[in-house]
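Q: Please design a sequence for this.
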């Protein structure tokens, strides 16, 4: 299993665009936003916080979404289309291990991306680290697993790699919208904000944990249920060829 993970990690590093967007883009976006003086000024709309303080949770959403909904479905669907999964099914290495390895690679890349973001948050902008580290870890883990499960579900149902990319893009855009990436959440109607708080990867739980309160058990439960349900359906409906 370790060899499969190492191989998939090396293949991931050979995709410069994915490495840049998944690991470096959230931090680069923070640096760009932080260069605007108005976004570094405390604002009553954010409870006296700065915009960049309130936007960090959305940057985490961006990192997790790129990995779970851009990289994973396209990679798995391409492997199936090229016959890689079918050939693995004839060897002692079950193709299911390849799917697990994809999720592990996502988790590793997610740790690097969020870790880099935290370093820049603290050293460059003086943003506090998550006030509830255990809650933040749980929210990140469940958020990554829920998006990976949705990504595998797309890969399971899409007939080709191209269609997998198209379907995943639709889900990706919805996740980014409700996560506040396209329109800051404070500008969104309350109903959309409430919906976004519960949808994967759980921007509400991420923000609560970062700003100091424990994530809502309901938010974490939704992420856990999504991971189990989407993962189970994907496993039962997945086609190896």
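A: Design:
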């Amino acid at each position: 299993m370790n060899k499969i993970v190492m191989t998939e990690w090396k293949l991931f590093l050979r995709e410069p665009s994915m490495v840049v967007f998944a690991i470096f883009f959230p931090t680069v976006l923070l640096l760009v936003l932080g260069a605007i003086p108005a976004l570094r000024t405390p604002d009553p709309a954010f409870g006296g916080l700065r915009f960049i303080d309130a936007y960090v949770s959305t940057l985490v959403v961006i990192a997790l979404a790129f990995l779970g909904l851009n990289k994973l479905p396209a990679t798995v669907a391409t492997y199936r289309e090229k016959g890689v999964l079918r050939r693995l099914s004839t060897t002692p290495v079950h193709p299911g291990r390849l799917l697990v390895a994809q999720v592990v690679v996502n988790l590793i890349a997610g740790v690097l991306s969020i870790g880099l973001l935290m370093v820049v948050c603290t050293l460059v902008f003086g943003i506090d680290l998550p006030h509830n580290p255990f809650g933040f870890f749980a929210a990140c883990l469940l958020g990554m697993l829920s998006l990976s499960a949705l990504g595998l579900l797309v890969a399971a149902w899409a007939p080709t790699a191209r269609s997998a990319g198209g379907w995943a893009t639709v889900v990706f855009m919805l996740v980014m919208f409700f996560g506040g990436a396209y329109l800051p959440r404070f500008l969104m109607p309350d109903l959309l904000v409430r919906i976004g708080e519960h949808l994967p990867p759980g921007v509400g739980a991420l923000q609560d944990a970062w700003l100091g309160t424990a994530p809502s058990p309901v938010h974490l439960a939704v992420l856990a249920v999504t991971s189990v349900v989407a993962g189970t359906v994907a496993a039962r409906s997945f086609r190896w060829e």
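Q: Thanks. Anything notable?
A: The CA atoms of residues 122 and 128 lie 6 Å apart. The first helix runs from residue 2 to 13.
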